[in-house]
Amino acid sequence: MIEDKNQQKTQLSDLGEFGLIEHLTKNFEIKQKSTIKGIGDDAAVLNFEDKRIVVSTDLLVEGVHFDLSYMPLKHLGYKAIIVNLSDIYAMNAEATQVTVSIAVSNRFPLEALEDLYAGIETAAHVYGIDVVGGDTTSSNKGLLISVTAIGEVKPGNEVYRDGAKPNDLLVVSGDLGAAYMGLQVLEREKEVYKVNPNSQPDLEPYTYIVERQLKPEARKDIVKLLADLDVKPTAMIDVSDGLSSEIMHLCSQSKVGCDLYENKIPLDPQVISTCEEFNLDSTTVALNGGEDYELLFTVSQEDFPKIKANPNLSVIGFIKEEKEGLHLVTRAETRIPIKAQGWKNFND
Amino acid sequence: MIEDKNQQKTQLSDLGEFGLIEHLTKNFEIKQKSTIKGIGDDAAVLNFEDKRIVVSTDLLVEGVHFDLSYMPLKHLGYKAIIVNLSDIYAMNAEATQVTVSIAVSNRFPLEALEDLYAGIETAAHVYGIDVVGGDTTSSNKGLLISVTAIGEVKPGNEVYRDGAKPNDLLVVSGDLGAAYMGLQVLEREKEVYKVNPNSQPDLEPYTYIVERQLKPEARKDIVKLLADLDVKPTAMIDVSDGLSSEIMHLCSQSKVGCDLYENKIPLDPQVISTCEEFNLDSTTVALNGGEDYELLFTVSQEDFPKIKANPNLSVIGFIKEEKEGLHLVTRAETRIPIKAQGWKNFND
Q1: Number of domains in chain B
Q2: Residues B123 and B187 in one domain
Q3: How far is B280 from chain A (nearest CA, A)?
Q4: Is the pLDDT of residue A155 over 50?
Q5: Domain assignment of residue A162, yes or no
Q6: B289: containing domain
Q7: B77: which of A40, B135, B256, B300 lies 20 to 30 Å off by Cα?
Q8: A12/A87 same-domain check
Q9: A13 touches B: beta carbon within 8 Å
Q10: In a domain, B223, yes or no
Q11: What percent of chain A has pLDDT over 90?
C-alpha cells in the first residue's frame, strides 16, 4: 500500500508556488495535429477543421472504483484513461485528447502522483492521445480522478446507441467477465494478506483475468477494424457495467427487443476455470460483471459475411421488435428475461 | 445545513436502474447550434465547423472549495459552472458546452442533488451554454463536482497568457477582493450560529460581497465588450487565485515584468468598509483574496483611447522588461516586490 513504501517522499505542501499539474505533466508530448495549445493556459485550444467532436467524462473514486491495496498507482493512471477512451471508441470515433483532474489527500507524497501520471503518460503514448489540461486539488479523504476525453469523427460516421433495428445482429468484441473474476482473485488475496502478510500470492493461473482488471485496454483496434471491413454499426455502446446492463441501454434507446444466446457469449478459459473455483456461474459473471471495456454493437444482416470469420468479434444474438422484450436464450433453450440491475454504487 | 432539512427525501439507492444523471438533467434544453448530441450516449457529439475549440476543467471539493453550512446547493451548482466558464472567457472565447460530474455520499438525498442541478441549469440558461454530459457516482465522504467547459473561438482570436509586451497596459475588469471579504463575513456568521443557533444574522451591510462569494459571475460581457471596442488583448487570464498570483502567471509566461499601482486597484466601498471592520488591509485582500473571476489582461498602448472611459475596466499598471521585475507601487510611492503565494490547499 502506498503509505508503506520506504522511499524518498516529497510532501505536496513542499511544492510551493510551482504548479503540481505542470510538474506532473512537463514531459508529456503533444502528438495530435489538432492540439494547438495544451496544458499551461486557462484552457486548451484545439482545431478539428471539418471533423465533429465527441466528448465524454468519468469519475473514478478511491474505495468505490478502485482499491489502492492491490491497484498500483501506475496501473490506476492507465486505467483512468482507458475507461474514458472506451466511451470515445463506442461512438466510432478516434480519441485525440484528454484532460485529467485529481483530488488527493495529503497522505500521498509527490512520488505517488508521479507514478499515477506515469500510467497516464503510458496510456497517452499507447493510444496516441494528448493530455491537454487538468486541475490538481486537495481532498479530505483519498484520491479521486476525473477524466474528460475528446475525440473526432467524420460527420456521418458517429454511431449512437439508438440505431439498432429488428433483425440486426448483436455483436461483441473480445471476451467478457474476465475483469470481474480478476477482481475476485485480488480481493481474495487481499484477505489472505491481512491474515498473513508474509504470504506470497501465486497469481500465475490468473494472469489474464488479473491483467484485465488492473490494466484493461480500450478497443481502438475494433474501430479501425470496422472501418477496414467497411462496416458501420447501427448502434454501439461500450461494456463498462456488464453485458446485460449495456444490452438494456442499447435496446431501450433503440426501442427494440433482443434474443441473447448464452452459448455464444465469449468467455476466456481462465474465466471458466476461475468461476468453477469460486463456485460462480460464468454467464451471470459475463452478464453482470462489468469493466470489460469491450464494444457491444449491432450490424445489419447484410454485413454478416464481413464479420463472421473475425476472431475478435462474436455474434451473440439478434435484435427483435420492442414488444418481444429482451431475453437470454439458455443452453437448455429456455428463455429468461434480461433484468435490470440496481445501481450498485449507492446500495452500500 | 443539508442534513437538517425537514422535507420529503428520496434516497439515492431508491432510484434503482434509472440513471441519476438522466433524471437530474432531463429538463435541460439544448440551445447551441454546435451541440449535435447531448447527454444520453457514450459521449456528446459537437460540431464547430471553422472554429477552434477551447477546453478547460476544474474540480470543486467539499471542505476545500466550499462549505455547505453557508453555501446553498443551488448556488454551488451555479458557481461550479461559473468558475469554468471564466477560464473559457479568459481565452477570449465563447463558452458553448459543459460536462458536469459529481461524486456524492449517501447522506445527500435526491432532492439535494436536484437543488444542485437547478443551479447548474440556471447558470446554463444565463450564459447560454448546453450541459452535454456527465457522470454521477458515490463518494465515501462529501460532495465533489468536476466540470469541463468547452468553448469556441475564431482562429486567431484566442488570447493566451504569454503575449504581454513591455509598455502594454495592465487592465482588470470589475473590482477585486469582494468574494474573499464575503467569505470572511460568512465564516464569522457560522461561528456565531454555532454558539447561538437562534441568532439572525444581519447581512444587509454585506449584500454585495456575500453575493460575490455565493453567486459569482463570469465576465462573458467583457469578452463581448472587447470585441465591440475592437480591442484584442495581448495576454489574458482570469482572477481566480488573487491578483498577485495571476499577475505572476501572466508575467512569467510572457517573460516580462510589471508595475502595479496600489491606488488604481478597483475596490468596492463594501470591501473597504468590511476590511476596516475586520482590520484587514484592502490591498492585501485584493492581491491575495481570490475567487473574483474578473479578467486580467494586457493591451497595447494604442488601444488606451478605446478602453479609458469604460466603467467596467481599470488600468492598474504597466508591463515592463523582465529584468525590472514585478512591483507594487504603493500610495506612498514605495516599490514592493510582488511575491509568490504558497499553494494554500496543501498547507493544512
Answers
A1: 2
A2: no
A3: 24
A4: yes
A5: no
A6: 169-341
A7: A40
A8: yes
A9: yes
A10: yes
A11: 70
Question: In whole numbers, what is the pLDDT of chain A averaged over residues?
Answer: 90
Q: Can you tell me whether residue A171 is helix, strand or coil?
A: strand
Q: Is A145 in the same domain as A15?
A: yes
Q: Best interface-test mutation with B: which of A18, A94, A106, A346 has the largest number of B CBs within 10 A? A: A346
Sign of CA dihedral B235, B239, B241, B243: positive
Residues of A in contact with B244 (CB under 8 A): none
Q: Say how far apart CA A92 and CA A74 lie, in whole Å.
A: 28
Q: Which pLDDT does position A15 carry in this prediction?
A: 64
Distance from CA of B38 to the nearest CA of A (A): 9
**Would you call B286 helix, strand, or coil by DSSP?**
helix
B171 touching chain A per CB within 8 A: no
Question: Percentage of chain A with pLDDT > 70?
Answer: 93
Angle among Cα B147, B152, B156 to the nearest 5 degrees reads 130
CB–CB contact A58 B135 (8 Å): yes
Both A140 and A191 in a single domain? no
Is A77's pLDDT higher than 90? yes
Residue at which a domain ends, from A153, A183, A205: A153
What ipTM did this prediction achieve? 0.88
Which parts of chain A fold into alpha helices (H)?
20-25, 73-89, 110-127, 178-195, 207-214, 220-228, 243-254, 269-278, 282-288, 304-307
Which of A59, A162, A343 lies closest to B146 in CB terms? A59
Higher-scoring residue by pLDDT: A35, A10: A35
Of B47, B55, B237, the CB nearest to A52: B47
Sheet of B169-173: strand order equals B235-239, B294-299, B169-173, B313-321, B256-261, B326-329, B335-337
Give me the pLDDT at residue B256, please: 98
Q: Quick: pLDDT tens for A248-257.
A: 999 999 999 9
With H, G, I as helix, E, B as strand and everything else as coil, classify residue B56.
strand
Please judge whether A134 and B42 are an interchain contact, meaning their C-beta atoms are less than 8 angstroms apart.
Answer: no
Looking at A127, A153, A179, which one is the last position of a domain? A153
- Closest partner CB to A53 (pick from B48, B162, B345): B48
CATH number for the domain harbouring residue A296? 3.90.650.10
| Residue B85 domain flag | yes
Mean of the pLDDT values across residues A201-224? 94
pLDDT of residue A288 exceeding 70, the answer is yes
Q: Which helix (H) or strand (E) holds B191?
A: helix B178-195
Regions of chain B where pLDDT drops below 70: 1-8, 13-18, 340-348
Distance of residue B99 Cα from the nearest chain A Cα, in angstroms: 7
Do A215 and A336 fall within a single domain? yes
> What CATH number did the domain enclosing A52 receive?
3.30.1330.10
**Shortest Cα distance from A154 to chain B (angstroms)?**
10
Do residues B77 and B146 share a domain?
yes
| Complete edge-to-edge strand list for the sheet that includes strand A326-329 | A235-239, A294-299, A169-173, A313-321, A256-261, A326-329, A335-337
Q: Are residues A192 and A315 in the same domain?
A: yes
In this structure, are B136 and B257 located in the same domain?
A: no
Any A CB within 8 A of B154 CB: no
